[in-house]
Design brief:
The protein is mostly beta strands and 166 residues long. It is 7% helix and 46% strand. The protein is elongated and about 55 Å long.
Length: 166
């Protein structure tokens, strides 16, 4: 019955660093961007950054991963006060490369070891190569995502994978 709730593969920490050259959605020539991350039925969001198209979030968010085949989806929005928020693009991240690497024995890895590189292609939204590496005893993946269905904009962020012990 409720077994799926407890069937957590691991915890995915999102370190949302910044947005670069995001779309202008306000009449003053800027935007008030924030990001909503969806993973299955769960969602988390960043704070709104006022009057900028180059926001510096430096926020950490956490989601539990139940199914490695469900992509992490993100939507960037412009916060408005008196009307609905404006869309500023979206992207998807396939978590399987990170989770698959996480199943390997990491006991021999040293700090900074790059374990896998994911190259940009038509199936992902990477703006450049995304490296999965070992750092500070954790498995991480840095990425620059090119936002889709918008005139411009990229999101720089890092995924940190942690398995549930026991």
């Amino acid at each position: 019955m409720g077994e799926h709730k407890h069937n957590i593969l691991g915890l995915l920490r999102l370190k949302v660093e910044k947005g670069v050259n995001l779309a202008i959605r306000d009449s003053c020539g800027t935007s008030d961007p924030y990001i909503i991350f969806h993973l299955g039925k769960h969602k988390v969001k960043t704070h709104v950054m006022k009057k900028t198209t180059n926001p510096q979030w430096d926020e950490k968010l956490t989601l539990s991963v139940h199914d490695p085949n469900i992509p992490l989806k993100l939507e960037v929005w412009d916060k408005d006060t008196f009307k609905p928020d404006d869309a500023m693009g979206h992207a998807e991240i396939d978590l399987r490369p990170l989770i698959d690497v996480g199943k390997q024995d990491m006991s021999k890895q040293t700090d900074g070891d790059v374990i896998k590189t994911v190259v940009p292609n038509r199936q992902n939204h990477f703006a450049e190569e995304s490296k999965i590496y070992w750092s500070e005893g954790k498995l991480m993946q840095e990425m620059v995502l090119r936002l889709q269905e918008v005139e411009r904009g990229e999101i720089e962020m890092k995924l940190i994978w942690g398995t549930i012990q026991g």
